[in-house]
From TrEMBL:
Superkingdom of origin organism: Bacteria
Protein name as catalogued: GxxExxY protein
Source organism (scientific name): Mongoliitalea lutea
Gene3D superfamilies linked to this entry: 3.90.320.10
InterPro entries reported for this sequence: GxxExxY, PDDEXK-like_dom_sf
Amino acid sequence: MTKREVTQLSYEIVGLAIKVHKELGPGLLESVYEHCLRHELIKKGYEVDQQMRVPVIYDTLEMEVNLRVDLLVNKMVVVELKAIENILPVHEAQLLTYMKLLKKPQGLLINFFTDNITRSKKPFVNEYFAQLPDG
């Protein structure tokens, strides 16, 4: 995929999150939004991994830890969902770490406890995004 394609994919994911949010509103459990967003993404033909295990490898040690990404879309965009009053720096760090461990170029932190998904979402890119071809 190119940088433009990954950026477009992220834009479309946010659009579907907005659709889910408009339908359901704020105040539900994160898992409800996760299932509904996954449903919308699959309806649009995207490949979606839900609650995918994140491997942690340090040196030669592969650890059995229970880290899970909420959604991974088309093997490129990590989507971390929240339904909380305030996004904290630890939530951003969590997403950035998942992106690094999975070697994925883009991540979206989407909080459904808001009146406006567009203003509250946080997109992230890393060194893997820089390695994608332009276009």
